[in-house]
Write a structure and sequence with these properties.
Blueprint lengths: L4 H7 L17 H16 L6 E6 L2 H17 L1 H7 L5 E6 H16 L2 E4 L2 H18 L11 H13 L5 H6 L21 H22 L4 E4 L9
Parallel strand pairs: 1-2, 3-4
Helix pairs in contact: 1-2, 2-3, 6-7, 6-9
Length: 231
């Protein structure tokens, strides 16, 4: 990988807290992150227990980064053998895997067990809920079984944003949702009956899980609606 002067400048910046690197797709942000690992190892990791963590958001990019980092290691192997602290622990992982690890640690500390809900059961649940909610909101055409996956995705988004009340959901900007193409529903307009129906659908969808959790003393069910990260 060839580096330009701007990339080298960023790579060799002194660590001074959080740093945001902005750029369009393909501008070399990932390359900068990969090359910064050996720079930090060489100059800022003198202790045996020093650690470097590079986190990405999906497995595809993870595999790419690991492949590129291996090439960087080969390109800089002589310097690494001579100068680098070989005891430095370098980990390249996805955010899902990191969060799953900490969650498992939490369960162990609290002496709980974890059960991951099957996605097929999740879909079955939302379909059952939609049949009931469509009777309550006959004019909201979004509440149909054919939109089951779309609505599950919307429920995931609401939970990921920690939106806990209808008023917040009604007024939040919802960028990237359906525009009516490819069989998806129309755009989710603010302060609409559609959003109200979706939010109440989410609450109805949550009820079976809440019942199961409360009826099992020390078993914690990880709902796919909150993210079913697997290692």
């Amino acid at each position: 990988m060839k580096l330009n002067s701007e990339q080298r400048k960023i790579i060799e910046l002194e660590p001074a807290g959080p740093m945001l690197v902005k750029g369009v797709a393909g501008s070399g942000k990932t390359t900068v992150a990969i090359w910064r690992i050996p720079f930090l190892m060489n100059n800022y990791c003198p202790e045996k227990d020093d650690r470097i963590l590079l986190i990405t958001f999906n497995k595809t990019l993870l595999n790419y980064i690991k492949h590129q980092y291996q090439k960087v290691e080969e390109d800089t192997q002589l310097k690494m053998d001579m100068l680098f602290n070989q005891d430095v622990d370098v980990e390249i992982s996805t955010i899902d895997k990191i969060m799953y690890r900490y969650y498992q640690r939490h369960l162990k500390e609290e002496k709980r067990t974890l059960q991951v809900v099957d996605n097929r059961f999740r879909y079955k649940t939302i379909i059952e809920v939609l049949h009931k909610m469509s009777e309550q909101y006959p004019d909201v055409k979004t509440l149909t079984p054919k939109n089951g996956m779309f609505l599950l995705d919307e429920i995931d988004w609401i939970k990921a944003c920690n939106i806990q009340d209808l008023e917040t959901y009604q007024n939040v900007d919802r960028i990237g949702r359906g525009n009516g193409g490819h069989g998806n529903p129309q755009k989710l307009i603010k302060n609409s009956s559609v959003r109200k129906a979706i939010f109440e659908t989410m609450e109805a969808y949550d009820q079976p899980w809440i019942t199961r959790i409360s009826s099992t003393s020390n078993t914690e069910h990880l709902r796919p609606g909150t993210g079913t990260a697997k290692p």
